[in-house]
Design goal:
binds FE2/S2 (inorganic) cluster; about 40% strand; mainly beta; Rieske Iron-sulfur Protein; four-stranded antiparallel sheet; about 120 residues
């Protein structure tokens, strides 16, 4: 049986609320994600670095990745996998933009396949 995931999309902000090449924290109850505006798209991952829970939304953006502001681990924004620094992962969430609003499918995060 082919089972298609049923995402529940949540509007988190307008596209103009996050300047290009910056991130913001988004709160869902007691859970926090980091939402990034890459210039031509948005990405969302958990806002807790797999090393020691550093706030990834405050990190420095690289090419498709973010560097944790605490110790510099590099996290892939599409997969949530640590690319350098050590082994680890965070959840990455589906994001879509509709008519100037950014939506995140919170609760449907995917984990890195090789973690
Ligand atoms: S807490 Fe992120 S690199 Fe240490």
């Amino acid at each position: 049986m082919n089972k298609t995931p049923a995402y529940k999309w949540y509007r988190v902000c307008g596209t103009r609320e996050i300047p290009a090449k910056e991130g913001r924290r988004v709160q869902f109850g007691d859970h926090q994600i980091a939402l990034f505006h890459l210039g031509n798209e948005f990405c969302a991952i958990d806002n807790a670095c797999p090393h020691k829970q550093g706030p990834l939304a405050d990190g420095i953006l690289g090419e498709g990745s973010v560097f944790c502001p605490l110790h510099g681990w590099k996290i892939d924004l599409k997969t949530g996998c640590a690319l350098s620094g050590g082994l680890g992962q965070v959840k990455a969430y589906p994001v879509r933009v509709v008519e100037g609003d950014v939506y995140v499918a919170f609760g449907e995060g995917r984990l890195c396949a090789n973690a």
